[in-house]
Fold:
Amino acid sequence: MAAAPVAAGSGAGRGRRSAATVAAWGGWGGRPRPGNILLQLRQGQLTGRGLVRAVQFTETFLTERDKQSKWSGIPQLLLKLHTTSHLHSDFVECQNILKEISPLLSMEAMAFVTEERKLTQETTYPNTYIFDLFGGVDLLVEILMRPTISIRGQKLKISDEMSKDCLSILYNTCVCTEGVTKRLAEKNDFVIFLFTLMTSKKTFLQTATLIEDILGVKKQLANFCRILAVTISEMDTGNDDKHTLLAKNAQQKKSLSLGPSAAEINQAALLSIPGFVERLCKLATRKVSESTGTASFLQELEEWYTWLDNALVLDALMRVANEESEHNQASIVFPPPGASEENGLPHTSARTQLPQSMKIMHEIMYKLEVLYVLCVLLMGRQRNQVHRMIAEFKLIPGLNNLFDKLIWRKHSASALVLHGHNQNCDCSPDITLKIQFLRLLQSFSDHHENKYLLLNNQELNELSAISLKANIPEVEAVLNTDRSLVCDGKRGLLTRLLQVMKKEPAESSFRFWQARAVESFLRGTTSYADQMFLLKRGLLEHILYCIVDSECKSRDVLQSYFDLLGELMKFNVDAFKRFNKYINTDAKFQVFLKQINSSLVDSNMLVRCVTLSLDRFENQVDMKVAEVLSECRLLAYISQVPTQMSFLFRLINIIHVQTLTQENVSCLNTSLVILMLARRKERLPLYLRLLQRMEHSKKYPGFLLNNFHNLLRFWQQHYLHKDKDSTCLENSSCISFSYWKETVSILLNPDRQSPSALVSYIEEPYMDIDRDFTEE
Structure:
């Protein structure tokens, strides 16, 4: 009889056997039962107990069994691989062993994928199955991740060639053996580590192939998006100082020398995976079976709360995620003892146990993660590529079809509140999905011609009719829109959004995001047709109601509404007529002005748009325009020089170079717009002289103009090296960027004799214009 097998580490030949090994041999003194070891290994793989790896057997035992079972020597090779892959190994022998294992699996995988697989009677168990069963997959994962381990401050290294061998073997095992891909997808640390391997050209192809297979696991892509969210997002330290434009500029300079960030590399890697974005779009737009209505949803709420408070809910959710993929797998072939009533849960379909509301929440959580990843990709360097793919895979029409049934489904406000939270909490999956959906729309529409995919064919025809009636050229992007990719149904996604926006309660947290999403549709070069499309749907009256009649108190909501109002009214005579019709009393107008003046950081974009519109209207010869100029309270108010000077003084005074952020830098640009328009009228020296007088009247001579000088120096540093920002300034103001640059240069002219130079209005004792504001 062959030497008795022993547990690893117990010493060969001592005659002491583990219980698992004894069972595998059929008891003391018995002959090994064919297949019993494999059953034991499979059971150990499922439970994590007992026999799980080749290292738990002696080489003598494995060789003896290999003669009977034809395992191609794989268990013995795994035993050697384990022995030679210790932390202090040079891995040379490991690579030789991998070279022996690789062809045994690759031939089988090739036959499998070409559908030429013919199992002979002698090979009862395929090589890949044996490789996985004896712990090969877990061992290779450990070897691959050795570089994440430090010994005495030194990171372990393995060669790219060895990494390629490990990745190829893992992929071949995934192809041939059911369940391996799913297990790898559940190893979050391993999946994140795979992205680091994609940064190397030598291992990119093998890594991308394996990741693509992982993404193909049914029901796993949405969960996997949680990992992707980390790998493709730029790290944020959470320190407010790091959000200043000074800090961002310093970071950008540093990044230029270091090359693309890890997040940018990972985004590019994901986009190179065939079918990845398509699968995301399909998952985001997958329909949900919703058999119950509003009443039954509310009736289930109490049961929903009970489930949330019960620790067993996690087990149930896991079954929902895996039910279909595991239905015919080994958990049924080898049910653990007491599985029918395990942990107090009947062993029935998890979907029949869960309330309908829970099923919907489960789908919502999937879509939430997917929309986040798509949103990040839309804001990345490959934005145009992502736009083309999202359009091609019809994400927008798909979301439009889900809008009423899932994204903005109707139920009472109480259904939005999770147990243990209050009504103002934004933690609910329902609420978070809505916000993520609105953020996606904002990113999708912002300065991109694909925004017209948010409309349906009838609405696109309406835009054309508006241009025709106004006797203006039709927007080129509308003409170029592929009609097969737009929304279907009676209403497009933008119109649906406007409808729910107008019905939103005054205190709703959605108002901010809704306004941002609609405003992004208007951003860029001003389109009269786009504005009229929204004006005809009562958007201006809704905004004014929220600002004036509801006297909105939220600064965030007010800012988003002022920004939207500015884009809606800019250069549009009809919009100013509608404004005057709604704000038809002095009392209403004073409330409106109070809201504007309460925070110029929030309202300055509206001030800028009205100032630009006034300048254009004053240069037009048209009866309709003349009528608006004579009647509109807002235009009359802005046209007064004291009003403009008051805005200019406050705009400069509330910002400083060290506190400039993406949010308040608009104050600097609005102040520049006022001065550029003054320069056009040859009134720039007058405005600078008035600023000097206001300084003296406030008992702070030089303070404001020194600050403005520093701000303009920073402006040059910031904008002259960023094409996107300069284009945005030009498009939004209809003032050429060269005129922006010229005006700033004139203001910064060091010649104290120049009537348009800031230094001419700062007295020598108060001069402080050479301060170094750079940030390391």
User: Anything to note?
Assistant: The chain has 42 helices and two strands.
